[in-house]
Amino acid sequence: MELMQAIHTRRSIRKYTDEPVPDEMIKEILDAAMMAPSAGNAQPWQFVVVTERERLDAMADLHPYLKMVTKAQVGIIVCGDLSKEKFAGYWVQDCSAAMQNLLLAAHGKGLGAVWTGITPMEDRMSAFKTMFNMPEHIIPLGFVPMGWPAQEVKSTSRFDESRIHYNTF
After folding, report:
1. What is the rounded distance in angstroms from the CA atom of residue 141 to the CA atom of residue 64?
2. Could you tell me whether strands 45-50 and 74-81 are parallel, antiparallel, or unpaired per DSSP bridges?
3. Tell me: domain 3-149, CATH 3.40.50.12780, correct?
4. 120 preceded by cis ω (within 30°)?
5. Which end of the chain has fewer CB atoms at under 10 Å, N or C?
6. Which residues of 100-121 are buried (b: 16+ CB within 10 A; e: fewer)?
């Protein structure tokens, strides 16, 4: 898939088939995520790959917008690792860039995925940290349920000239 096509056609997919996602494909998607830029090249990310059916099903209660996880074949938690930060607070931007790479890579492989936010919601952060035994310096940014899509979402342009300002606001 050509890059601009991937950017213009990637959408949040919340319905999945029962077909498993190969481990090698997950590794390739994580490799793409780790190619993201980061402040000072700190790469302050950690990833938790969730493949156990019981654990995925239990996650539906962690977050009000996570019901689709019971049909996903895999999920990935993108986390910030504060011990790897070079510049305090930039982990959110760095991990968001990794998240976008992850979503585009999944789409490029033909998978469906959706970014569900965790940070900055304290209740969600606490629930994920507890369920996945995360140390204090690890902060869950977001969770991506993914699988082979069982839905097709049409893509329309979101370009809005009124949002563009040159040289000054």
Report:
1. 16
2. antiparallel
3. no
4. yes
5. C
6. bbbbbbbbbbebbbbbbebbee
